[in-house]
Amino acid sequence: MGKLLLKDSPQDKALYEELSRKHKAYGSDAIWIIQNYETLKFEYPDEWIAAYQEQVIDHDADLKELMRRLQGRFKEDAGLVAVEYVSPKKVEVII
């Protein structure tokens, strides 16, 4: 597995800042999904949703179709869009 080594060059600093910004944006969208799950489960029951900039930008019952559209729209950044399955049923976690 390769490692990303950042040097002190302006290009490396810019890359680090961009990656950090994207990571924070993804986290904000994932948190937004959690915070709005009760509403989302009524609007998108049994579907996959894609959230970007704290709003649903696409949804589909078929994950492959949703990802195909996201890859067409976001190219290599498609993995930075928060994607979650929305179940209308109560999910119990047993630990």
Question: Secondary-structure map with pairings?
Answer:
Layout: H1 10-35, H2 37-43, E1 47-51, E2 56-60, H3 63-74, E3 82-86
Antiparallel strand pairs: 1-2, 1-3
Can you tell me about this structure?
By secondary structure, this protein is α+β, with helices and mostly antiparallel strands. It has one domain. It contains 3 helices and 3 strands. It is elongated. The model has no long low-confidence stretch (mean pLDDT 82).
Q: How many E-type strands?
A: 3
How would a crystallographer describe the biggest sheet?
A: 3 strands, antiparallel
Question: How many helix segments?
Answer: 3
**Order of strands, widest sheet:** 2-1-3
What is the end-to-end distance? Answer: 32 Å
* Class of secondary structure makeup: alpha+beta
Task: Enumerate the spans where pLDDT stays under 50 for 5 or more consecutive residues.
Answer: none
Using only CA atoms, what is the Rg?
Answer: 16 Å
Shape estimate: elongated
Using brief descriptors, characterize the structure shown.
16% strand, 95 residues
Give a nutshell description of this structure.
With 95 residues, the chain is an alpha+beta fold. It has 3 helices and 3 strands. The chain has a 3-stranded antiparallel β-sheet with strand order 2-1-3, with helices on both faces.
